[in-house]
Amino acid sequence: PGFPRTLGQARALDGICELDLVISLNIPFETLKDRLSARWVHPASGRVYNMDFNPPHTQGIDDLTGEPLVQREDDRPEAVAARLRKYKDAAKPVIELYKSRGILHSFSGTETNKIWPYVYTLLSSKIPPVLSDEEH
């Protein structure tokens, strides 16, 4: 989940800066649940593995130390589902706020490499290119 997550955070952010672009990524509940539930950690170092995207060489074992990996309580499937429901309820008014201001841009999908080109195109149209000293 991104920031701001609540109306209180959105109002606090308003006091710091004026937003002119907000991006909302709409990813299916099951996709988020599966991805978050696939996360395992080496407690001593904080190294994070994802069983789908960057699994350890040996399942359940840290690559560098050979010590066991653990799944944090809040990464267990039932905890993830509860977290996602709570986030959705809290974020809905924030999404509506930015939508009412006309600055919300929403993108849907399940894979970064398929969503990113659309986000990049939007950002490229809103942000002028940075020129090097030689180009000035």
From TrEMBL:
Q: Transferase: is it a keyword of this entry?
A: yes
Segments forming domain Adenylate kinase active site lid: 39-74
Tell me one GO molecular function of this protein. Answer: ATP binding
Q: Which InterPro entries match?
A: Adenylat/UMP-CMP_kin (IPR000850), Adenylate_kinase_lid-dom (IPR007862), ADK_active_lid_dom_sf (IPR036193), P-loop_NTPase (IPR027417)
Q: One Pfam family, please name it.
A: ADK_lid
Gene3D superfamilies from the xrefs? P-loop containing nucleotide triphosphate hydrolases
Q: Which domain of life is it from?
A: Eukaryota
Q: Which UniProt keywords apply?
A: Kinase, Nucleotide-binding, Transferase
Tell me the PANTHER family matching this sequence. Answer: NUCLEOTIDE KINASE
Can you tell me which family this protein belongs to? Belongs to the adenylate kinase family.
Q: What is this protein called?
A: KAD4 kinase
